[in-house]
Amino acid sequence: MAEKEKLTIVVFSGELDRALSAFILATTGASMGMEVTMFFTFWGLNIIKRNEGGIRSKGLMRKMFNFMNRGGSKRLKISRFNMFGLGTWMIKRLMKDINMPSLDQFITMAHQMGVKMIACTTTIGLMGLSEDSFRSEVTSLAGAAYFLGEARESKVTLFI
Amino acid sequence: MAEKEKLTIVVFSGELDRALSAFILATTGASMGMEVTMFFTFWGLNIIKRNEGGIRSKGLMRKMFNFMNRGGSKRLKISRFNMFGLGTWMIKRLMKDINMPSLDQFITMAHQMGVKMIACTTTIGLMGLSEDSFRSEVTSLAGAAYFLGEARESKVTLFI
Amino acid sequence: MAEKEKLTIVVFSGELDRALSAFILATTGASMGMEVTMFFTFWGLNIIKRNEGGIRSKGLMRKMFNFMNRGGSKRLKISRFNMFGLGTWMIKRLMKDINMPSLDQFITMAHQMGVKMIACTTTIGLMGLSEDSFRSEVTSLAGAAYFLGEARESKVTLFI
């Protein structure tokens, strides 16, 4: 049996627009029969943080940092014209208007389609995040070597 | 006859500096004999909007959004030091000074060199853009599946 | 003897967070036995500018531009939450706290591991930078055609 072609996406950015782009590509790739891995690092971890409850971390500075950088798919902002939330609200309205899934729904869909979602251990260590900061759809935690291993075997690799 | 090697570029960003980088790579690739496809999505659509006339769209919210987000190669700003247009003006002066083509000229050159420029249908639907919003150099409209199809056959794929 | 697999990274961005991500991937790739090339362009050149002394350039406008855009690994800011330097200071503290190398140390490590660091001639011309603007770790200067030549032979190519 032929091996599936692989698509690997590093999601570095934590804005709503880039997150949507990453998930549209990931779910489209999966629907085309590709084996898709998303590797979330730095601000990208915000996309896959739980929306509910608080995010625990140790030490004053990490608590402060994670308070500012709370994340969660429902809290992300667009990278331009956010204007205290107005632009983000407009984009979400426009998405509903054309029946595009929300980012939250895209994450669930991606999971159901077998997209692997990996959270970067280096960033987790840096930001002092506990493992229970993430949504249940997250497959596992891994480092840069894991990503490069996947990328080496991929037909398409993107850094978003 | 050997097939041409492919270069595929997703242009997600709409800033002048990233647009220039995308077109320098696209035209260089074409001059090296590569088959180049540029796939413009989200803010990247601003690069290939007509500079002249208005952009039509339906509904109050889309009209407002497209008014803010007018786009056109001559209206783009650099991503840093824009400072109410000063930095953008400086970069354009520095470009002229070393006889670098303007972004507008790069788009024409790319077209003449056979670079395919595709506008993303999902973003067009989201932003409610009419087909006549785009320059004549744009080859066609297509979705994420088209892009991934091209990317799978490409030697180099970039997300800018 | 088998050829080494190649990893090629365009470093377009000049923020601390993206620079760190680029060097973590570059050094990880090198440690996995890959042949790594980093191609620094536009704001990315700031990462590999000398930290010490002034940066010379010709003409008033270029002097002004390079004064604003001084660069150097120790001067870079993070892309979010910089807040007049507070966020950048916090990230650097968090890095020390988990014994992560500084960006400066990453650059030295990458060099020692054989990572090739190339500075983009087009940007150097545009910004009017003298060759002595760069750190000693920089391997050479080259243009977009050089990058695409490397990318064509690479297993993984990223645009950061």
Keywords:
homotrimer, 160 residues, alpha/beta, 5-stranded parallel beta sheet, 6 helices, 5 strands, 39% helix, globular
Q: Give the structural class of chain A.
A: alpha/beta
Question: DSSP strand (E) fraction of chain A?
Answer: 15-25%
Q: Which pair of chains forms the biggest interface, and how many residues does each contribute?
A: A-B, 30 and 29 residues
Report the radius of gyration of chain A as a whole number of Å.
Answer: 16 Å
Q: Catalogue the unreliable spans of chain A.
A: none
N-to-C SSE string of chain A, H for helix and E for strand: EHEHHHEHEHE
Give the distance, in angstroms, between the N- and C-terminal Cα atoms of chain A: 32 Å
Q: What portion of residues of chain A is helical?
A: 25-40%
Spatially, the strands of the biggest sheet of chain A line up as: 4-3-2-1-5
What characteristic shape of chain A results from the CA principal axes? Answer: globular
Count of DSSP strands of chain A: 5
**Largest sheet entry of chain A:** 5 strands, parallel
Care to describe what's here?
- Three copies of one chain form a homotrimer.
- Chain A is an alpha/beta fold and 160 residues long.
- Helices cover 39% and strands 15% of the residues of chain A.
- The first copy, chain A, contains six helices and five strands.
- The first copy, chain A, has helices at 16-31, 60-68, 86-97, 103-112, 121-127, 144-152; strands at residues 6-11, 35-40, 116-120, 140-142, 156-159.
- The first copy, chain A, has a five-stranded parallel β-sheet with strand order 4-3-2-1-5, with helices on both faces.
- In chain A, helix 1 (16-31) runs parallel beside helix 4 (103-112).
- The mean pLDDT of chain A is 95.
- Chains in contact: A-B, A-C, B-C.
